Amino acid sequence: MRIRGLNRNCVASVVIFICLANTLIRPIANAISDHGIWGAAINSFGVNTAVWFAVGMVVINLLKAPTESANKNDHLIISIIMLGTLIPSTTISWLCLAVFSVWLLKTGQTAYLRTASAILLILSLRDPLLANASNVFNTEILAIDTFLVSTILSVIDASIYQSSNLVMGGDGVKLVILKGCSSLTNLSYAFLIWYSITKTYTQQITNKAWLALLLILSGIFAFNVIRLAFMATGEASYHLLHNATSNSLQSVLMLLAVLFLSFWGAKCFIQRG
Amino acid sequence: MLYTKRIILAVIFSLFAALSLTLKLTTMDKPDLTDQWVKPFEISHTLLQKSFQRLGHSRLINSPHYAAEIYTGLSGNPECNGLLFILSMPENSEAEALLATPSGFQTEEKFYILNHHIYDTFPSYRFWLSKIKHRLLQLFGLEYKQNIVFGVSSTDQCLNARTLPWSRIVKELYLLSPQNSSQYEN
User: Pick from A21, A37, A225, B102: CA 20 to 30 A from residue A111's CA?
Assistant: First the structure.
């Protein structure tokens, strides 16, 4: 289809690329600086795999979207967004991307462009919301994980109890649950993957997709809590489960489970019959 | 005409991309508050005047981020041999529970100091607002000073920890911090 004026999808893609580059440049630079280019590549350049996956889904949707024509309002919004990326703050860049996503969501004429925008919106809001929520509600968030870990362990050892984010036993502190151990970060990444797949491959979110989400979130939560409970049982199990290899293995297993359940929920497996 | 427009747009986008990414990369070296406060700081002059002695520096857990300064108090009073723990909490409240039982000791009193005020519980919301404010001002080059929360606990009420002049003590602790101490104020 021939359009008059600039190709809106093309311009939007460039703006999205620039915003994403601004948000991810710092962790990528740190990863390359710390581990070298190949080491950083193995560690997905310091950016969680879920983020790269979501970006991939956005690209797939943008490539499928039919061409639209850009108008003057688009030029204005894009100018504001580009000026926003000049502020040397990753959070501001994420918020610029969020604003641009909302704009595309409201004005996009095709389903593919709106899907890409919706995924981008979740992606761009995840980081700033999580960072600020975990600062303000840190005590409450950690207390949830600690409560569940203490509950599980108290079945084996009646002297186990919870004190804020400490798992206490008869002989003192068994485990301290810090921000990095909390389930919240993994849950947010899992939601991002599920949403990206579900929006890309289904017209509407079905009951099966919601069931898949429930299974994903409860599975990740349970996995994390049980892992923490094992870590609290002793020094040996703590070091076994709290090293780089174990963390990588856990990440891979969780990623595969989330991908499988998300595609299952989106009914993406070919039926043989 | 459209071709020219596209060329101009490509140049503008390239300039914006180059400039924004350069700004992000050149402003990456923000001091890591956590790293700065794990090093032991010397006893403050005010605590010394109040007859406190620094006993040492103890990690509360097997993580480099949370290490408390330990003081014995009131060396002139043989009936009061409590311990005072001062813990810097530059990020959030996750070490809050550690102050209740630092290094296995049971404490009788625990409070937090931020911006000249004493709080019974970690002032999460106020601390977050303080960080937002300082970050915004820093972005526009107006100010580059940030307060952190100090957690204080004592094993004996006789130390009267709350009545100590914390505004002065914290200021001295900031000045005694290992790096870039002039950047911080209370």
Answer: A21
